[in-house]
UniProtKB/TrEMBL annotation:
It comes from Trichoderma ghanense. SUPFAM superfamilies: alpha/beta-Hydrolases. This is AB hydrolase-1 domain-containing protein. InterPro entries: AB_hydrolase, AB_hydrolase_1, AB_hydrolase_fold. It holds the Pfam family Abhydrolase_1. Residues 81-224 form the AB hydrolase-1 domain.
Length: 375
């Protein structure tokens, strides 16, 4: 590790695009199902929403001891992941691999592109988190995930705001609700006004060099120490051992290659997203930003939602080092909801699904096992 992590040399976009790992930065994880839903009929639509299901698990896990697990048939095997501002469904690939491929006989994982990003439509309109949640419910209805206590919903950042609205709309259908790095209503904390925070986010699309924009975003999402650390090859899929994983293009044996640093992998993912035709537009970003800015759930609304979902089925986590949505937001959400599990994690930033993926995935699985016992 460098003595001054801020001083580590960030590669240029051209250097990263020429890196042998770049062609396979998005892992070839073949979904078990995929398609489009024409959502929002009667709500200004139709709006085409792109979705995938990874895994087909008819069972879930019950702990017997530290080295043995017993599986039994249960219909509450479904996991819905909702991405945050400007994210696309492939941003979940560490979780998609873990649950939907390595454990594909145990879990089914539904991922989608929220309206405004990726392969979904990007209508010019006033987006709201409630309308985006209704899109999610339309997808759940389309794929047939409609039973009571069937779906584990996980949302991060803007996705966590959308997940709150999903829980308000269909509380009886949720087996569990996990809210990560999100808020009931944005509060920037004493050091930063809402106007300053909003301008910071708008600054992501103000003209600047591509490299500078990605570097600025990386510092908002991650700690410098993690950005400077080597990319972890142990987390990569392999076509030899990962079910339904295609080979990495451009490598002689089809194996996936690490980048030089965690920053370079993040940079490569952002470059791919922004250069994939139609995936990322300023219009879509600003429309999603409007939804985040307008999100507001009152204490009474959140208490009602928690009563109907069941507080013992809810987990909320926030990091003390979150530079996107300050920890005061997570503390307030925990205060209002009074979840069964409320975690304020020292030193955690805004995106544990990436920089703490192993811990994050294990924690989710631990909670899924616990929630299975609730029936």
């Amino acid at each position: 590790m460098l003595n001054d992590c801020r001083a580590f040399i960030r590669p240029t976009a051209e250097e990263t695009i020429k890196h042998p790992a770049y062609p396979s930065v998005i892992w070839a994880l073949e979904p078990h199902q995929r398609g489009f839903v024409e959502a929002a009929h009667g709500r200004g639509g139709p709006v085409k929403i792109s979705w995938e299901i990874h895994g087909e698990g008819p069972t879930k896990l019950v702990p017997i001891n530290h080295s043995c697990r017993l599986s039994y048939t249960d219909n509450a095997r479904h996991l819905q992941l909702i991405m945050g501002l400007a994210g696309v469904k492939t941003s979940w690939q560490r979780q998609t691999k873990y649950f939907g491929h390595d454990r594909s006989d145990e879990y089914s994982v539904l991922i989608l592109d929220n309206r405004g990003m990726g392969d979904s439509d990007k209508p010019l309109a006033r987006y709201t988190t409630s309308a985006m949640a209704a899109d999610v419910v339309d997808v759940l209805d389309h794929v047939g995930w409609t039973a009571d206590r069937e779906v584990h919903v996980v949302g991060i950042s803007l996705g966590g705001m959308i997940a709150q609205e999903v829980a308000c709309a269909i509380p009886q259908r949720l087996r569990s609700l996990t809210l990560v790095a999100t808020t009931p209503q944005f509060e920037s904390g004493p050091a930063k006004s809402w106007g300053d925070a909003l301008w910071q986010r708008v600054g992501f699309v103000v003209p600047k060099s591509e490299e500078q924009g990605i570097a600025d975003t990386s510092r908002q999402l991650f700690a410098d120490e993690w950005l400077a650390a080597p990319d972890d090859a142990a987390t990569l899929p392999s076509p030899k051992t990962t079910p339904r994983c295609g080979p990495a293009p451009g490598t002689p044996d089809g194996e996936y290659l690490p980048f030089d640093t965690n920053f370079q992998r993040f940079q490569a993912q952002e470059l791919y997203k922004k250069r994939q035709k139609g995936w990322f537009t300023r219009q879509g970003f600003l429309c999603q930003l409007t939804a985040a800015a307008g999100h507001r759930k009152t204490p009474a609304q959140l208490r009602s939602m928690a009563d109907r979902v069941g507080r013992e089925r809810i987990m909320i986590m926030h990091g003390t080092a979150d530079n996107m949505i300050t920890v005061a937001n997570g503390e307030k959400l925990i205060k209002y909801v009074e979840p069964g599990v409320g975690l304020i994690v020292e030193g955690m930033g805004h995106a544990p699904l990436m920089d703490r993926a192993e811990w994050f995935n294990s924690l989710l699985e631990e909670r899924f096992i616990a929630w299975a016992k609730l029936g």
